[in-house]
Amino acid sequence: MSWLKEVIGTEKAIIAMLHMQPMPGDPYFDKAKGMKWVIEKAREDLDALQEGGVDAIMFSNEYSLPYLTDVKKETVAAMARVIGELQPEIRIPYGVNVLWDPKASLDLAAATDAKFIREIFTGVYASDFGIWDTNCGETVRHQRAIGAENVKLLFNIVPEAAAYLAARDIKQIAKSTVFNCRPDALCVSGLTAGSATDAGILDEVKKTVPDTVVLANTGCRIDTIEKLLQIADGAVVGTTFKYDGKFENQVDRTRVKAFMDVVKKTRS
Predict the structure, then answer these.
(1) Contact 115/76 with Cβ under 8 angstroms?
(2) Per-residue pLDDT for the chain (268 aa), expressed as one digit of tens each?
């Protein structure tokens, strides 16, 4: 049995993304509407996801485009406010994802009692955001220093909008990451949010590290989730839950419920 059962309550877990609107410091923050509007939009998505039956939620600053790899303090503060105001209404386990800064994600998790974070912890990449470097050893030491050792670390090993500077086989990456860094889960992604996870790559990763939780991380749809869950231990789902399946839209409760009905049938 994996930690998913203990922390989230089920194997083959579906972690739903809750994409926060642009916040103070973000280029597209709506100053006229302010933080109250950001909180209200997050509340609407939270209600839709919970009523639709997802297993867990991951709060993310998905609309802080273009992303930073050294996130500013105002972003973490704003995210903490949103989660803090919504906390009395949260009925299921949740995690956080401060794009793309693992230390900031840990800080937010520690402040909000989040159960897990997802980040790029390892590797050096050529990305849309420039040269993208990481320091997993430093990050894990920071995790221990702030008392967040119980926060599960979900390693995205196929970064969105980025590629390894040196050509590396995905099986080598999975094997060395598990040996060197002891991730709680490996996340296998497509090119961007909403882009399909390659089932072949997902299968290669799972077979290479069968004792590690492996999650399908992007592009899971109602017509593909059954096949993906035959391979993966669970999935992180965002875009397909939104009205018309579009990244920029809010969550559609009807789409969530229909998707989760398929998931529950697959589990049974």
Answers:
(1) no
(2) 899 999 999 999 999 999 999 999 999 999 999 999 999 999 999 999 999 999 999 999 999 999 999 999 999 999 999 999 999 999 999 999 999 999 999 999 999 999 999 999 999 999 998 999 999 999 999 999 999 999 999 999 988 888 899 989 999 999 999 999 999 999 998 655 656 778 889 999 999 999 999 999 988 999 999 999 999 999 999 999 999 999 999 999 999 999 999 999 999 8
Q: Can you give the pTM of this predicted structure?
A: 0.96
Q: From the CB of residue 121, how many other CB atoms can be counted at a distance below 10 Å? A: 22
Per-residue b or e along 156-170, where b marks 16 or more CB atoms closer than 10 Å to that residue's CB: bbbbbbbebeeeeeb
Domains along the chain with CATH numbers: 3-262 (3.20.20.390)
Q: Dump the DSSP string for 166-179.
A: S---HHHHHHHHHH
